[in-house]
Amino acid sequence: MFIARKMARALVAASALVAGVPAVAADDYPARPLRFIVGFAVGGPTDIVARVAANDLGKALGQTVIVENRPGANATIAASAVARAQADGYTGLIAATNHTINAVLYPDLQFKSVDDFAPVAAIAVAPTVLIVNKNFPARNLDEFLKELRANPDKYSYASAGSGGTPHLSAELFKKLTNTSIMHVPYKGAAPAMSDVVAGHVPISFATLGSVLPQIRAGQVRALAVASPQRSPLLPDVPTFEESGVKDFRLDSWYGLMMPKGTPPAVLNRLAESLQQIARTPEFASQMATAGLQPITDSGPAQFEAQLRAEIALFSDLVKSSNLKVD
Fold first, then answer.
1. Which long-range contacts (CB under 8 A, 24 or more apart) does 59-62 make?
2. What is the pLDDT of residue 153?
3. Of 34, 88, 169, 199, which sits with the fewest C-beta atoms within 10 Å of its C-beta?
4. What is the rounded CA–CA span in Å between residue 40 and residue 47?
């Protein structure tokens, strides 16, 4: 056992030297505090995931995990800092779905959204939910589609801003259902939701966490969720698949990424710890308060495949819809 462990450490060291980064052995890791960088302000869903995961991961690893917020430029400032960081397992990025969207909408980024990172694991997810004003003349997705097709170009939908997950969700829905709804972008989820509640813009494709209080209060009506299974936070609301719209699965994920070249032993250690944390009732409860669900089966290979598949999906969608962001 000792010899095998020693050989494993030697292999890790050799790999690290080839990659030009310091050697890090899983058995010795971590030897000092970690730092997770977040590209959004304090209090948002990405920040919430980062702080809960950092607290629990710190306990699991026996080291403090510091969360640092560097908002701006649609989270590309934070991502760029991590892409340039030393690949020693001590600096990570808590990323969200906009990380893959940025790869498509902003081709001149100073980093590659997958190739310049080492994906660790997705941690939590918030399904996209289709909501309408409580007075909208449709109580389910079938009635919603009939209303849109009977009144082409009559309706508009609100989003938290151009280029976000809700915006691309709506464009994907329009493509799959061959319907037309005008986009009205807002500067944030709160003003968008205010106008949907008021009926000024009667439709929105929104992240569940941002609209759950209004759904529960009866201010808006949820028609469908864009996830493989129904959300436990909205068990009575069907998925789009159940309602007849196939291949419409789009959500907001939150996950951990390290700089390219981080040793695989470190990535696996972090991923396994995050999986164990995500399976605890305490973590699930904390995520639920923000309208999120834990992801318990993600690791480096699965997460990287997910990122590449999303970039391909968004690339096709942007081209087919001629979507542009100023």
1. 60/273, 60/276, 60/277, 61/30, 61/34, 61/273, 62/30
2. 86
3. 199
4. 7
Q: For the residues of 46-66, what is the DSSP string, one character each?
A: HHHHHHHHHHHHHHHHTS-EE
The angle at the Cα of 51, spanning 47 to 57, to the nearest 5 degrees, equals: 140
Supply angle C-alpha 207, 43, 125, rounded to 5: 35
Q: How far apart are CA 155 and CA 198, in angstroms?
A: 15
Prior bond of 30 cis (ω within 30°): yes
Distance CA 139, CA 137 (A): 7
Q: Which two tokens stand for residue 312?
A: 């391909």
* Distance in angstroms between the alpha carbons of the first and the last residue of the chain: 58
Which tokens hold the place of 112? 């590659």
- H or E segment and range at residue 312: helix 300-321
Asked if residues 49 and 292 have their Cβ atoms less than 8 Å apart, the reply is yes
Measured CA angle at 226 (ends 53, 45), to 5 deg: 30
Q: State pLDDT tens for residues 310-324.
A: 999 999 888 887 776
CA 258, 262, 267, 270 dihedral sign is: negative
Residues 36-48 pLDDT 10s: 999 988 988 899 9
Please tell me the distance from the alpha carbon of residue 215 to that of residue 127, in angstroms, as a whole number.
14
Whether 243 has a pLDDT exceeding 50, the answer reads yes
Return d(Cα 55, Cα 291) in angstroms, integer. Answer: 19
Instruction: Please give the residue that has the higher pLDDT: either 117 or 165.
Output: 117
Task: Read off the amino acid at residue 309.
Answer: A
CB 215 within 8 A of CB 234: yes
> How many other CB atoms sit within 10 Å of the CB of residue 111?
19
Instruction: Give the residue from 250, 249, 267 showing the smallest Cα distance to 258.
Output: 267
Q: Give which of 279, 252, 307 is closest to 44, Cα–Cα.
A: 252
Q: In this structure, what token pair is assigned to residue 249?
A: 């699965």
Cβ–Cβ < 8 Å for 302, 119: no
pTM of the model: 0.82
